Amino acid sequence: MFSRTDERVIARWWWTVDKVLLGAVLALILGGLVLSLAASPPVADRLGLDSFHFVKRHAIFVVPAVALMIGVSLMDPRQIRRSALVVFIAGLCLMVLALQFGAEVKGARRWISIAGFVLQPSEFVKPAFVVLVAWAFSERIKRPDMPGNMLAVLMLAAFVGLLVPQPDFGQTMLAVLVWGALFFAAGMSWLWIIALGGLGVGGIAAAYAMVPHVRERIDRFLDPESGDTFQIDTAIESFVRGGWLGRGPGEGTVKQSLPDSHTDFIFAVTAEEFGIVVCLILVAAFAFVVLRGLAHALRERDPFLRLSVTGLIVLFGLQSAINMAVNLHLMPAKGMTLPFISYGGSSILSLAYGMGMVLGLTRRRPQTKPVLTELTGPVGVPAE
C-alpha cells in the first residue's frame, strides 16, 4: 500500500501504527453494526419510528467515529495531550450547561443539544480526563517538586463534582476506579491504597444512605423481591433461551419487551439470538484489546506514555466488564454502554477518540539510546 521510504504522514502512520490492535477495534465497530440490526428494530417500533431508525443512526455515527479515531492516531503525544486539555475544559463547561439547560431524561440531566445533535459531554471528558491525570502523575515522577498528585486530585474533584449532580453514579464510579488505577500504576504506597479504598467504601455507603436511586438499585441487586427487576430478569432469561448457539438472527423474543435492548442490554440480545458462543467471542475480543494495550504500556519507558495507555485501556476494559456484568446480574445496574456495540452517538465518538489516542500513543518510535559521558568510565564505573 505504502512504501517504507514514503515520507507522507499517512505512510508513516501506516508503518508505525499497531495494525493488529486497529483491526480488532474495527472488528468491534463492525460487530456493533450487526448487533444493532438485531437489537434495535423492536425499540424503534415501540417508539413509533421507522424500524431501522437506530440502525441507520448507528451507521451514520460509525463513519465520523472511524475518521476521528484515525485522525487522532496521527497525532504525536504532545498533540494528544493538548487536545485532551481542550476537550477536558470544553467538556466540563458543557456539563455545567447541561445541568442548567439540558433536557431531563429519566430524572437525569446529562445531555445538551447543539445544532440539533444531542451530546453527552461527560462521555468525551472521560478519555481526556485519563490522559491529563496520567500527565500529572508522570510529571510528579519526573520532577518530585511538581504538585502532580494535587493536580490529579483537583481534576478528579472537578469531574466527579459535575457527575454526581446529574446524577450519574455509574460514570462516577468508573472515573474514580480509573483514577485509582493510574495512581497505583504511578507507584503510590500501600498506605495510599488503604486510604483510597476506605474512601471508596465510605463513598458507596454515603450514596446508599443519601441517594434513593442508588439505594433502590443496590437493594434490588441484593434482594430481588425488594423492587422491580424486570429488565435484569428478562436479560437472564435471554441467556437461558439462547443456549450455546442461539435461536438465530431475528428470532429472539426477549428484545420485544426489553426497554434498553439496543443500549444497556444489547449483550443479552446477542446471547438469545447468536448464543453464548458469540458472547464468549465478544468477551475474547474485548480481552484482546485490553491485553494488547497493556502489553504496549509495559514496554513504554516514558512515564506519560505508559500511564496514558494504561489508563485509557483500563477505562475501556472496565466499561466493557461493567456492562456485561450487569447483563449477567453480577452487579447492580449502572446504565453503561458496551463499547462500540451499544447504540449511542456520544458513546461511539468518545470511544473512538479514546482508542485513537491509544493507537497514537503506541505507535513505534525510535528509542533513544543512553550516551556515556566523560564522567563515566569505559565499563560504567564513575571516572576518577
UniProtKB/TrEMBL annotation:
One of its GO terms (cellular component) is plasma membrane. The keyword Nucleotide-binding does not apply. It holds the Pfam family FTSW_RODA_SPOVE. One of its GO terms (molecular function) is lipid-linked peptidoglycan transporter activity. The chain crosses the membrane at residues 20-39, 59-76, 83-102, 114-137, 146-163, 169-186, 191-211, 274-295, 307-328, 340-361. It catalyses: [GlcNAc-(1->4)-Mur2Ac(oyl-L-Ala-gamma-D-Glu-L-Lys-D-Ala-D-Ala)](n)-di-trans,octa-cis-undecaprenyl diphosphate + beta-D-GlcNAc-(1->4)-Mur2Ac(oyl-L-Ala-gamma-D-Glu-L-Lys-D-Ala-D-Ala)-di-trans,octa-cis-undecaprenyl diphosphate = [GlcNAc-(1->4)-Mur2Ac(oyl-L-Ala-gamma-D-Glu-L-Lys-D-Ala-D-Ala)](n+1)-di-trans,octa-cis-undecaprenyl diphosphate + di-trans,octa-cis-undecaprenyl diphosphate + H(+). Its EC number is 2.4.99.28. Pathway: Cell wall biogenesis; peptidoglycan biosynthesis. Its main location: membrane. It is found in: Cell membrane. It is a multi-pass membrane protein. The keyword Transmembrane applies. Signal peptide: none annotated. One of its GO terms (biological process) is cell wall organization. InterPro entries: FtsW, FtsW/RodA. Keywords: Cell cycle, Cell division, Cell membrane, Cell shape, Cell wall biogenesis/degradation, Glycosyltransferase, Membrane, Peptidoglycan synthesis, Transferase, Transmembrane, Transmembrane helix. PANTHER family: CELL CYCLE PROTEIN (PTHR30474), PEPTIDOGLYCAN GLYCOSYLTRANSFERASE FTSW-RELATED (PTHR30474:SF2). NCBIfam families: ftsW (TIGR02614). Belongs to the SEDS family. FtsW subfamily. This is Probable peptidoglycan glycosyltransferase FtsW. It comes from Microbaculum marinum. The lineage of its organism: Bacteria, Pseudomonadati, Pseudomonadota, Alphaproteobacteria, Hyphomicrobiales. The gene is ftsW.
